[in-house]
Amino acid sequence: MTGSQTATRTDSAQLKAQACRVLEQIFPADDEQALFATMTDQFVNHEAPPGVHAGPESVCYIMHLLARAFSDQKWTIDQVIAEGDLVAIRCTHSGRHTGDYFGLPATGRAFSYRQMHMVRFDGSKSCEHWAVRDDASLMRQLTGQK
What is the pTM of this model? Predict the structure, then answer.
């Protein structure tokens, strides 16, 4: 293995670890300072809710919203793939609904649903984010509907 292949493998491992850390540690801790330290100032969240600026603040907004709505939050990483400056994560978000979630009052129900995230990096910091979440499954679990 050449030096550049070793460096690429190490870089991929570091990017994967950085992306997983956001979900496994920073989001559950609702740690705004740590979150902002992982993103560039030009960060674009392609999954920002309507009416929310797509910059780094949008990710912080979502992190706080989730922390207010859900207790015992956990993101279980099922798979992580890195290629170049992109990291893809397949994970499961779980917890308990103990606060308002987009107008839905706390139900106390436990939930677990799947997500996919793709994060692009500029150096060691994330600069773009895309996601696919099974929000329909989440809402069925929170409301008790089949």
Answer: 0.90
